[in-house]
Design brief:
Length: 118
C-alpha cells in the first residue's frame, strides 16, 4: 500500500524556520504532484504548496515568498522549507500525492505539527 512518510515540524518563535519532508515510493513520487496542506484547530484543511513531477509549482498567496517547495528525485522526497514563520502558520501539515495529477486517488501523510509562538 502506498505510503507517505513525513518528518520535520516542531515549535519555533515567530520569524523562525522549519523544514518538512515527505518520502514516497519511487513509483508514487515519479508520477505524482506532491504537496502540502495544513489544518489549524477549528478550521478546514487548506492548500499550502505543490510541485508536479514536471516541476510546476503553486503556492497559496500568504506563504509565497516565505515557503519553498522542492523535490529530491534521488530520494523520492519532497521538502517544504518554511521561513519567516508567523503564528498564523500554526497547524498540522499534511503531505499529499496526486498520482498523475489526479485528485481522485490522493494519498495523505500522517500529519506533522507546526507551532509558531508570538
Amino acid at each position: 500500500q502506498a505510503q507517505l512518510i513525513e518528518s520535520g515540524g516542531g515549535s519555533v518563535p515567530a520569524g523562525g524556520s522549519l523544514r518538512l519532508s515527505c518520502t514516497a515510493s519511487r513509483r508514487t513520487f515519479g508520477a505524482s504532484t506532491m504537496g502540502w496542506f495544513r489544518q489549524a484547530p477549528g478550521k478546514e484543511r487548506e492548500f499550502v504548496a505543490s510541485m508536479s513531477w514536471t516541476g510546476v509549482i503553486h503556492y497559496r498567496d500568504d506563504v509565497s515568498g516565505r515557503f519553498t517547495i522542492s523535490r529530491d528525485n534521488d530520494n523520492n522526497t519532497v521538502h517544504l522549507e518554511m521561513n519567516s514563520l508567523k503564528p498564523e502558520d500554526t497547524a498540522v501539515y499534511y503531505c499529499m500525492a496526486d498520482f498523475l495529477g489526479s485528485v481522485a486517488g490522493r494519498l495523505w501523510g500522517q500529519g506533522t505539527q507546526v507551532i509558531v509562538s508570538s
